[in-house]
Write a structure and sequence with these properties.
There is one protein chain. This protein is α/β, with parallel strands linked by helices and about 110 residues long. It has one domain. It is about 45% helix and about 15% strand. Strands 1-2-3 form a 3-stranded parallel beta sheet, sandwiched between helices. α1 runs parallel beside α2. The mean pLDDT is about 90.
Length: about 110
Protein backbone atom coordinates (compact mmCIF):
# COMPACT_ATOMS: atom_id res chain seq x y z
CA UNK A 1 0.00 0.00 0.00
CA UNK A 2 2.81 2.43 0.83
CA UNK A 3 4.51 1.84 -2.53
CA UNK A 4 1.44 3.09 -4.39
CA UNK A 5 0.79 6.06 -2.09
CA UNK A 6 0.88 9.55 -3.48
CA UNK A 7 2.95 10.66 -0.47
CA UNK A 8 4.10 9.43 2.89
CA UNK A 9 4.21 11.50 6.06
CA UNK A 10 6.55 9.81 8.50
CA UNK A 11 5.64 11.08 11.97
CA UNK A 12 8.27 10.78 14.66
CA UNK A 13 8.73 12.19 18.14
CA UNK A 14 10.87 15.33 18.14
CA UNK A 15 13.76 13.65 19.94
CA UNK A 16 17.07 12.11 18.98
CA UNK A 17 15.60 8.66 19.69
CA UNK A 18 12.65 9.50 17.44
CA UNK A 19 15.03 10.60 14.69
CA UNK A 20 17.00 7.36 15.04
CA UNK A 21 13.77 5.37 14.72
CA UNK A 22 12.71 7.35 11.65
CA UNK A 23 16.15 6.86 10.13
CA UNK A 24 15.74 3.13 10.70
CA UNK A 25 12.45 3.21 8.80
CA UNK A 26 14.06 5.14 5.92
CA UNK A 27 16.94 2.65 5.81
CA UNK A 28 14.42 -0.21 5.72
CA UNK A 29 12.58 1.39 2.77
CA UNK A 30 15.89 1.86 0.93
CA UNK A 31 17.02 -1.72 1.59
CA UNK A 32 13.73 -3.43 0.72
CA UNK A 33 12.90 -2.18 -2.76
CA UNK A 34 10.75 0.63 -1.37
CA UNK A 35 13.14 3.46 -2.25
CA UNK A 36 10.61 4.86 -4.75
CA UNK A 37 8.59 6.23 -1.83
CA UNK A 38 11.50 8.30 -0.51
CA UNK A 39 11.11 11.20 -2.98
CA UNK A 40 7.47 11.42 -1.87
CA UNK A 41 8.22 11.36 1.86
CA UNK A 42 7.95 14.18 4.37
CA UNK A 43 9.04 13.81 7.98
CA UNK A 44 7.01 15.46 10.74
CA UNK A 45 8.97 15.74 13.99
CA UNK A 46 6.32 16.22 16.66
CA UNK A 47 6.99 17.56 20.14
CA UNK A 48 4.68 15.67 22.50
CA UNK A 49 5.62 17.77 25.52
CA UNK A 50 7.36 21.06 26.14
CA UNK A 51 10.99 20.00 26.14
CA UNK A 52 13.85 21.81 27.73
CA UNK A 53 17.32 20.85 26.59
CA UNK A 54 16.28 18.36 23.92
CA UNK A 55 18.81 18.20 21.09
CA UNK A 56 16.24 18.82 18.34
CA UNK A 57 18.87 20.38 16.09
CA UNK A 58 20.84 17.10 16.06
CA UNK A 59 17.66 15.10 15.40
CA UNK A 60 16.73 17.45 12.55
CA UNK A 61 20.23 17.14 11.00
CA UNK A 62 20.09 13.33 11.14
CA UNK A 63 16.91 13.29 9.09
CA UNK A 64 17.65 16.09 6.61
CA UNK A 65 20.78 14.15 5.65
CA UNK A 66 18.36 11.95 3.65
CA UNK A 67 17.45 14.96 1.50
CA UNK A 68 13.89 14.91 2.77
CA UNK A 69 11.94 17.84 4.19
CA UNK A 70 11.70 17.70 7.97
CA UNK A 71 8.99 19.83 9.54
CA UNK A 72 9.05 20.43 13.28
CA UNK A 73 5.57 20.48 14.76
CA UNK A 74 5.76 22.32 18.08
CA UNK A 75 4.08 21.13 21.23
CA UNK A 76 0.40 22.00 21.27
CA UNK A 77 -1.79 21.41 24.28
CA UNK A 78 -4.89 20.58 22.25
CA UNK A 79 -3.07 18.13 19.96
CA UNK A 80 -1.43 16.48 22.98
CA UNK A 81 -4.82 15.44 24.37
CA UNK A 82 -5.32 13.03 21.47
CA UNK A 83 -9.02 13.83 21.41
CA UNK A 84 -11.16 15.03 18.50
CA UNK A 85 -9.44 17.78 16.61
CA UNK A 86 -10.86 21.28 16.88
CA UNK A 87 -8.70 23.53 14.69
CA UNK A 88 -9.87 26.61 16.55
CA UNK A 89 -8.06 25.26 19.62
CA UNK A 90 -4.78 24.46 17.84
CA UNK A 91 -2.07 27.07 18.28
CA UNK A 92 -1.05 29.20 15.33
CA UNK A 93 2.46 27.74 15.37
CA UNK A 94 1.19 24.15 15.23
CA UNK A 95 -1.34 25.02 12.52
CA UNK A 96 1.42 26.63 10.45
CA UNK A 97 3.64 23.55 10.84
CA UNK A 98 0.81 21.16 9.92
CA UNK A 99 0.02 23.26 6.84
CA UNK A 100 3.71 23.05 5.90
CA UNK A 101 3.63 19.25 6.19
CA UNK A 102 0.56 19.05 3.95
CA UNK A 103 2.05 21.46 1.40
CA UNK A 104 5.32 19.48 1.25
CA UNK A 105 3.52 16.14 0.88
CA UNK A 106 1.28 17.46 -1.88
CA UNK A 107 4.15 19.14 -3.71
CA UNK A 108 6.39 16.07 -3.52
CA UNK A 109 3.57 13.81 -4.73
CA UNK A 110 3.11 16.02 -7.80
CA UNK A 111 6.84 16.16 -8.58
CA UNK A 112 7.22 12.39 -8.30
CA UNK A 113 4.48 11.56 -10.79
Amino acid sequence: MIATSHALVLVTPGTVDGALSARGALEWFAANNQQDILPRTVIAMVSHAPQVGADLHRAHEMLTAWGLPVVSVPYDRHLATGSSLDLSKVSGAARTAITHVVREAFSRSLMAR
